[in-house]
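Example record for the data management plan.
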Amino acid sequence: MRRTSAKELWQKLEEKYMTKSLENRIYLKKKLFRFEYRQGIFMSEHLDDFNKIIADLMNIDVKIDDKDKALLLLNSLPNNYDHFTHTLINGKTEVQYDVVSATLMNNEYRKKDKQAHRDSSSNALTDESKASDKSKQVEFDVNPVKSDGDYTNEEETPVDIIPVELEGDGTDEEETPAQEPPQKQADSIAASRPKRNI
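Corresponding structural encoding:
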C-alpha cells in the first residue's frame, strides 16, 4: 500500500513471491522433476499444472530447453501411457514440447469420443432390448370353464357356435346333435347281478 509506482510495487512482489534465491530454485526444480500425473484428472489440467511450474522457473530466470520440457512431460505420464510414449519417440532423435502436448490433447479427445460412442451405443442396445421385451409380452384373456361347461365369470357369456361347412368329398352329411355324457349310475354293477347259490 505504501508503494507509489508500478515499478516499486513489482519489485516488492518479486521479492516476496518470486525470490531468485538458490533455495527457491532447488524447490521449483524438485517440483518439476518429481511432477507426476494425478489419477482422475483431465490431461488439460495436467498440462496446465506442468506449464505453471515451467512459468515459475522462468520467472526466477531458470531456462529449460524445449527438448527437456518434452522429455520431462513424457516422464510425468503414468505407466499406461508407455505405449503412447514409445510410439511418439520411435525413430526420432529429439522431440518438441509443442508436439508432445498437442498429441496428448488429441489422444484425450479421441478417448472421450470413443467413450461417448460406447455410451450412446450401449444406450441404444438397452433401448432396443427393452423394446423387444415389450413386443414379446403377450396377454391372454382366458375365462376358466367349469366341468359342466359354464363360465366362471358370470358377466361374460360364451360365444354362439356357428356351423361351418368344411371342404371334403362333397357328400352332405347331416349335422348330428352333440351327445351328452352318460349320467352316473345310481346303483353299482354288483348290486344288479343275479346272486349265485353255492
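Summary line stored alongside the record: The helical segments are 6-17, 22-33, 43-59, 66-75, 82-89, 97-136, 189-192.
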